[in-house]
Amino acid sequence: MILFRGIIEGFREIMANRFRSIVTMSGIIMGVASLMIMFALTEGMSVGFQAGLTEYGGLQRVEIVNEPVPVEEEEIKDRSPGITYADVLALRSSAPLVDLVSPELRPPGWQVVTYSNKQIWSPASGVEKEWLSVNPYFVVEEGRFITDFDQVRMNRVVVIGKRTAKTLFKLESPLGKTILIQGQPFTVIGVVDDPNIPGRSNMLLIPIQTCRITLASANVAKDGTDQGPVTKLAHIILRINDLSHFQEAINQAHSILEKTHDNIHDFGFQTQEEWFEETDRVVAATRMSGIFIAALSLVVGGVGITNIMLATIRQRIREIGIRRAVGAQSGDIFVMILIEATLLAIMGGGLGLLAGWGGISLLNALAPPDDLPIIRQWALLISFGSAVLVGTISGLYPAIRAAKLNPVEALKYE
Amino acid sequence: MAIIELQSVSKIYKMEQQEVRALDGISLTIEAGEYLSIIGPSGSGKSTLMHLVGCLDNPTSGKIRIDGIDVSKASNTQLSKIRNQKLGFVFQSFNLLPRLNVLENVELPLVYSGLHAGERKKRALAALTAVGLSDRRHHRPSQLSGGQNQRAAIARALVNNPKLILADEPTGALDSRTGENILQLFRDLHAQGHTVALVTHDPKIAAETPRSIRILDGKIIEDIRQTPVRPDTKT
């Protein structure tokens, strides 16, 4: 009852001094607005990072790479096979926790590609159908991708990147055309592209077995000596769908590779976890600095409220005396001042949310950031809640001062 | 029945090294239904006496009973409660809250006694009717004349049906005609059975009341019961 009446009276008091109240609230308004904008920006950032990560294969993507033999295994270095196709077969047959195994063989150097009178240089890879699953940001724009059938038959087919297709074929359809790679004929069966950076892909994807016997059959050094066929894979990409058994899956793959590599540790695992943690760190750091700035502004706003409430009390000493004379307890006076301070903060908080929303809209309209700001409910709640908290805390000291006023002195005050 | 009982009450203020005896061993009894005035020049201690009787302050020594309750050592909270339930104040400068309308001002003591809105409004309206101001209940104090303001203040003092109405120079800020109207209102309240104490420095007002207590230098120097001089019987 007293509370309700207190709120009404507090509201009237604030509205009676509209200009002063708005000035008092300005710190809170800015604090809440900056909190809200900062939350929206970092949330947009975080979501953007995660979307990028998911596109890249998410946490499920693990890369097995060749690594130099450790020093303590120096004497058995010669037996180091590197990552080979044998590892792929072993992983596929013995690692049930690993869902997909996608090898990639890279013939040395860039390849000369010719079609009619055009010639370009392009990197090539020997891959299998799994390549598309572990590189989910690529889509087949035309034709089809490499199949198991292509592997078994050792078909001389190639899937080319969008840029390669454009350079070689212009407006012509590349499907079914024969191109020469290092002088050997391949039939184009498909075109792939990354829609995020359209028209920039220049790769040549060839069935891995075909690649092995054609482009990777010889590795000629600079001085002209042939070092024999390329057996080392560039890397193997794994996909582990069940993240709850992520570490077990890695351990499983690791122990299989230890077997196939005769305990020579010339391989390593690279997970996206580090990337994930890094982006988390970046978002957290940005958020912290934002919170710091917003908190400063909220504190300034709080000091403003304290100051204005102290001034209000000085103006209203007589009113406080009258209220005490007709029976208000010092607690009633305390609550009255606290309600007023909190109301100021609530109104400032509300206006701050509006200002924050306006700021975000303005930002989107004038200079849209890469990752669009995202307004979350919890962010609104935290921004608004901290304003109310600051207001209440700022009202405490003035409220105590007002409650302690001696009724006789207050009544005498002119 | 005694509503107010003071037994050798003293109030001493310490100002730096000096002691100021604002009240010096005052004993006084006010019966229910009395109409009295407390008169004295400024600095005589009459304001201090009013503050003590009005439960705005504790005495340094002595006993004060209000409606049988000893309030000489009562806590802040208890004093507030007694002010709220047993006393009504009327001030020289009306002391209405400018942001509230007349009705809300009159309701104020009831808000602090925790009454709900319906009952508050009913009782505040009754008090306003008693002072003849019910038609102005939605006006702000600034929209009313001084006399109307003082009526509203009296309604506020009446609204909790107090044991004692304490009026501190209630006509001091009014012209003589309006002041007379307000005094008439107090006489009417007295006639209805209310206990009223006027605090004043004006002998003419003191002559109005059947009992007049004169204070000087913190002591009662005269406590006389008289036949009041009524303006209508003067000529």
Largest sheet data of chain B: 6 strands, mixed
Reading the helices and strands of chain A in chain order gives: HHEHEEEEHEHEHEEEHEHEHHHHH
Number of helices of chain B: 8
C-alpha end-to-end distance of chain A:
31 Å
Give the C-level CATH assignment of chain B: Alpha Beta
Helical content of chain B, roughly?
25-40%
What is the architecture of chain B at the second tier of CATH?
A: 3-Layer(aba) Sandwich
Shape of chain A: elongated
By CATH's scheme, which homologous superfamily of chain B applies? P-loop containing nucleotide triphosphate hydrolases
Residue windows where pLDDT falls under 50 for at least 5 positions of chain B: none
Radius of gyration of chain A (Å): 35 Å
**Helix tally of chain A?**
13
Structural class of chain B: alpha/beta
Short description:
The complex is a heterodimer of chains A (414) and B (235). Chain A is α+β, with helices and mostly antiparallel strands and 414 residues long.
